[in-house]
């Protein structure tokens, strides 16, 4: 699983951590709905639930990765903040990708830098 954080928002560490947790939960919930995705979820769980956190510099860049993931059949879930602390309600903060094969996710985000 990969979590893609928008660096342009200037979120504090704790906020990033909670938004990434939201993304991971959303992706896991989505993976339980289909047999292929469930198999990928089971494999990911057996591997120790690896997660990598990357960054993008804009909302547009996050949307581009989301579109590419959807075209490739990779689970893509965007976290929209409730707006109680650092950003306005509905702000898209983190994109969760997977669980899926490493090669499928790497093809989408291999060019991005670690957070």
From TrEMBL:
Q: Which UniProt keywords apply?
A: Hydrolase
Main enzyme class = hydrolase
Supply the InterPro entries for this chain: Pep_tRNA_hydro_II_dom_sf (IPR023476), PTH2 (IPR002833)
Q: Name one Pfam family in it.
A: PTH2
Q: What are its E.C. numbers?
A: 3.1.1.29
- Return the similarity comment: Belongs to the PTH2 family.
Q: What is this protein called?
A: peptidyl-tRNA hydrolase
Q: Kindly indicate where the leader peptide sits in this chain.
A: none
One GO molecular function term of this record is: peptidyl-tRNA hydrolase activity
């Amino acid at each position: 699983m990969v979590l893609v954080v928008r660096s342009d928002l200037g979120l504090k560490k704790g906020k990033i951590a909670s938004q990434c947790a939201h993304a991971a939960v959303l992706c896991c919930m989505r993976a339980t709905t289909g047999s292929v995705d469930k198999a990928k979820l089971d494999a990911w769980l057996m591997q120790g639930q690896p997660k990598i956190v990357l960054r993008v510099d804009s909302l547009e860049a996050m949307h581009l990765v989301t579109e590419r993931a959807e075209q490739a059949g990779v689970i893509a879930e965007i976290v929209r903040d409730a707006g109680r602390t650092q950003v306005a309600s509905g702000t898209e903060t983190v994109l969760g990708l997977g669980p899926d094969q490493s090669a499928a996710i790497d093809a989408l985000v291999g060019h991005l830098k670690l957070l």
